[in-house]
TrEMBL record:
PANTHER family: DIMETHYLADENOSINE TRANSFERASE, DIMETHYLADENOSINE TRANSFERASE-RELATED
Subcellular localization, as worded in the UniProt entry: Cytoplasm
Annotated S-adenosyl-L-methionine binding sites: H12, L14, G39, E60, D85, N108
Main location: cytoplasm
EC number(s) from the headed UniProt entry: 2.1.1.182
Species this protein is from: Luteibacter jiangsuensis
One Gene Ontology molecular-function label: 16S rRNA (adenine(1518)-N(6)/adenine(1519)-N(6))-dimethyltransferase activity
Described purpose of this protein according to its UniProt entry: Specifically dimethylates two adjacent adenosines (A1518 and A1519) in the loop of a conserved hairpin near the 3'-end of 16S rRNA in the 30S particle. May play a critical role in biogenesis of 30S subunits.
Catalytic activities: adenosine(1518)/adenosine(1519) in 16S rRNA + 4 S-adenosyl-L-methionine = N(6)-dimethyladenosine(1518)/N(6)-dimethyladenosine(1519) in 16S rRNA + 4 S-adenosyl-L-homocysteine + 4 H(+)
Domain Ribosomal RNA adenine methylase transferase N-terminal span(s) in chain numbering: 19-193
The protein's name in its UniProt record: Ribosomal RNA small subunit methyltransferase A
């Protein structure tokens, strides 16, 4: 029996087999991989992933879905279900508990909380091999946007400083129950190697990026007032009259280091 999607959890259950197969093929799990799924729902992605990985973990907040998911998974492989809000899950600790060097994370993320989940995963990127997420297409466009794009912003910069972001394909509303009002898209995030990560204080980088994009139409001189002065911005080879959306992710690191 199909569960009734709950609005409060932002649930849209994927049911189209063609897209499920494409997502599983994109993740390409291998026997022995430590796969962790966020929000498995009715198990549309869980069961095909489990059939290959033989053993996996799922994080589910909705208690009503857990018994049915465990029952369906029993004949396929070993499924460990963590009943929790994903934002409270320490992925670094989870990797240690599961005896994994690094986790492979997947999930159809609820639209209303997708950005906090992405930032939370990035905080634990040292314990993560890769991530495959289905999100609102508009969010994926922002994640992968380049400088100069209208949708390039804080999300683009913070994610690209931590990961290689690759949009994979679009998923139409009809692939879900109930159909959302927007297109979705699948994206792959691969955390950068330690030597590719920005050399600087993450808290300062976050402060500069947040301030710079707080008022998109204003210049850096205005948005970074009190953080980095105009002369210093110019010394870094950055035009103080430029707007945040024209800067490459690495420029924000330079600004943060000059704070």
């Amino acid at each position: 029996m199909n569960a009734r999607p709950k609005k409060s959890f932002g649930q849209h259950f994927l049911h189209d087999k063609r897209y499920i197969e494409r997502i599983v093929a994109s993740i390409a799990p291998k026997d022995g991989d430590t796969v962790v799924e966020i929000g498995p729902g009715e198990g549309a992605m869980t069961l095909p992933l489990l059939a290959v990985a033989r053993k996996m973990t799922a994080i589910e907040l909705d208690t009503d879905l857990i018994p049915g998911l465990q029952a369906r998974a029993a004949a396929i492989g070993e499924l460990k279900i963590v009943h929790s809000d994903v934002l409270k899950v320490d992925f670094s600790q989870l990797a240690r508990e599961l005896g994994a060097e690094r986790l492979r994370i997947a999930g159809n993320l609820p639209y209303y909380i997708s950005s906090p989940i992405l930032f939370h995963c990035v905080e634990h990127s040292a314990a993560i091999q890769d991530m495959h997420f289905m999100l609102q297409k508009e969010v994926v466009d922002r994640m992968a946007a380049e400088p100069g794009s209208k949708v390039y912003g804080r999300l683009s910069v913070m994610l690209q400083l931590a990961c290689k972001v690759t949009p994979l394909f679009t998923v139409p509303p009809g692939a879900f129950r109930p159909p959302p009002k927007v297109d979705s898209a699948v994206v792959r995030l691969v955390p950068l190697a330690p030597d590719q990560l920005p050399k600087g204080d993450p808290a300062k980088i976050h402060t500069v990026v947040k301030a710079a994009f707080a008022m998109r139409r204003k210049t850096l001189t205005n948005t970074l007032k009190g953080l980095v002065d105009e002369a210093t911005i110019r010394e870094l080879g950055i035009d103080p009259r430029a707007r945040a959306e024209t800067l490459a992710p690495g420029d924000f690191v330079k600004l943060a280091n000059a704070m």
